[in-house]
Amino acid sequence: MSPAVGGQSRAEGASVPTATQLPTGPEKVEAVRRMFDTIAGRYELVNGIVSLGMDRGWRHRCIDALELPVGSLVLDVACGTGDLCRELDRRLLRPVGVDLSSGMLAHARSPGPLVLADAVFSPFRTATFDGAVSGFALRNVTDLGVLFVELARVTRPGGRMSLLDLAEPEAQLLRLGHRLWTNYAVPLVGSALSDAAAYRYLPRSFAYLPPAHRVVELLEHAGFVAVEHELLSGGISQLYTATRKHEAGGP
Ligand SMILES: C[S@@+](CC[C@H](N)C(=O)[O-])C[C@H]1O[C@@H](n2cnc3c(N)ncnc32)[C@H](O)[C@@H]1O
Asked: N or C: less crowded end of the chain, CB within 10 Å?
């Protein structure tokens, strides 16, 4: 296998998703948009069940790691139905959500403004935000390198970023259990409550995740410093945190 768009994907280019192939480039953007439009109505319900409620704790950790003062303006990248926006608001931070799925935004509950856009071509002015967060979206973005450059642009120097996603645990036994859960239980729950194809995509979407050292490299290249990678819950979830570099002379 060779790296695809932006060195992000480990999947080879294919226009139609099959059991073994995943789309890349503009086809991926459209496939992702359609999929989330389809599952939006029950997204939060299914999410809570398939993560066994653990997503709550991971979201808390994601926002804790921002370490931003009350009143800070924070972009929730690929905000979906607004889970992280609501949590930001509970912490007295000011959320702005952006997502490319109108279906997800139609089902969103958020105290802050929501913007329908591809986060890679964001409509925000340079250095608008004190920070940015993202939940479970890294696998779904077509080119992580381009996204990170865009996030560096819209985040002020010294601003903070905290990106959460799923991961595959390293420990053998946990990895086996995790594979059984994501390959069999998740599609079953998904097909009972939502859309079977979308929840068959979940285990396959792990192939899009670059290794941690590559994500760190992409973040540093985009203009972030103090990049840290943390595994959560035995490695079934992961968090990248970073600080936006000051233009000259480091942070
Ligand atoms: C798994 S959901 C996560 C939703 C939410 N962040 C959460 O924590 O539950 C992934 C979201 O990423 C959005 N998305 C994927 N690529 C995007 C992009 N390039 N720009 C904006 N949103 C994107 C999808 O529409 C979807 O709502």
From this structure: N
